[in-house]
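Hi V.,

You were right to ask for the full record rather than a summary. Here it is.
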Amino acid sequence: MAAVSRSVRLQRCVVSPAGRHSASLIFLHGSGDSGQGLRKWIKQVLNQDLTFQHIKIIYPTAPPRPYTPMKGGISNVWFDRFKISNDCPEHLESIDVMCQVLSDLINDEVKSGIKKNRILIGGFSMGGCMAMHVAYRNHQDVAGVFALSSFLNKTSAVYQALQKRDGALPELFQCHGTADELVLHSWGKETNSALQALGVSTKFHSFPGLFHELSTGELEKLKAWVLAKLPGEMERQKE
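Predicted structure:
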């Protein structure tokens, strides 16, 4: 299978707001999953859909591509990795292509009337890593970034981009289980510390005993953070 084209249009699962649409949240799934799969998983954990009065949630699906950690097997992944480790080079070619594809998704929201500072992007595992690349390298004017059970490689292009930054940066919200054996808690913590040192305001929540998974407590904290970053009209009028 050929590499993913920069012109690909992502399949997406959308949860519309209950009221007037005034903000958007882009939620990226982990490797091998889909937008629809992530929405269902969140619904299972919360016993209901993640919904907001004024925020549209977009769950895009990564296009299928060969994935090296699966010995070149085809999987729905945002980019390729040489291996699942924080101590190896990034597969920048595939990351950069997807940065462009996801930029098109952000620009679609802007064209529909949503300001960039009313858009959040984040994800689970690989999805959180992808979101950090998109926001901190290409869209430093989004409202914020979230990364659940995610990490950046030690020599990430994100760190290099932030060394040349100019101006304010979006806040990062992170959650990570201490029992995660696929993406170690220490990798997430190191990512947080490195971004903080480069001027990113961060929030990091550790969840004792949590593996590489989502939890109710994690999603409730995320929901509160989302509402603080993207308040509705009533809350904005009080400010």
